[in-house]
């Protein structure tokens, strides 16, 4: 069902974690819904520990500022890789476990559909055959249609 008819005024949330799958999802959303409002969204996961991180404790103000700056950079890089001319793209972040954060955002905002990658940055060997845990939870629990781009 790839019809552009009726997508005027739709709001599409594209979840982006910096992975190639997420970038594919953004490209898909831009091509498939050219007249929609795209919300490029990043969940700031306080439970994701990066080994090389300078050791800022999660949820402090400085940690949050650093995470938001990283997300802003992620959004710039994501948009550099796609043709988004004439498209309404908004960006937003929220702190929490990615699936819960995405679902909460969809519930609290006027989002009509979610587009996300089938796997995230933590995809291991053999993972191309499985749906990522975030994608799986969002598919199961969202009250709006979800497109998983593989």
Automatic annotation (TrEMBL):
Record-annotated UspA domain positions: 10-150
CDD domains: USP-like (cd00293)
Entries under Pfam families matching the protein: Usp (PF00582)
InterPro entries hit by this protein: Rossmann-like_a/b/a_fold, Universal_stress_UspA, UspA
Annotated family: Belongs to the universal stress protein A family.
Name the UniProt record assigns to this protein: Nucleotide-binding universal stress protein, UspA family
């Amino acid at each position: 069902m790839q019809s552009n008819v009726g997508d005027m005024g739709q709001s599409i949330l594209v979840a982006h974690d910096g992975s190639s799958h997420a970038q594919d999802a953004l490209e898909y959303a831009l091509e498939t819904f050219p007249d929609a409002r795209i919300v490029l969204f990043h969940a700031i996961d306080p439970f994701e520990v990066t080994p090389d991180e300078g050791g800022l404790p999660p949820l402090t103000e400085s940690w949050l500022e650093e995470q938001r700056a990283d997300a802003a950079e992620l959004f710039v890089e994501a948009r550099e890789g796609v043709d988004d001319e004439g498209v309404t793209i908004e960006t937003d972040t929220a702190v929490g476990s990615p699936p819960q954060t995405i679902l909460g955002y969809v519930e609290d905002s006027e989002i009509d559909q979610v587009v996300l990658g089938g796997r995230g940055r933590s995809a291991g060997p053999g993972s191309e055959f499985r749906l990522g845990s975030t994608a799986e939870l969002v598919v199961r629990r969202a009250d709006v249609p979800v497109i998983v781009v593989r």
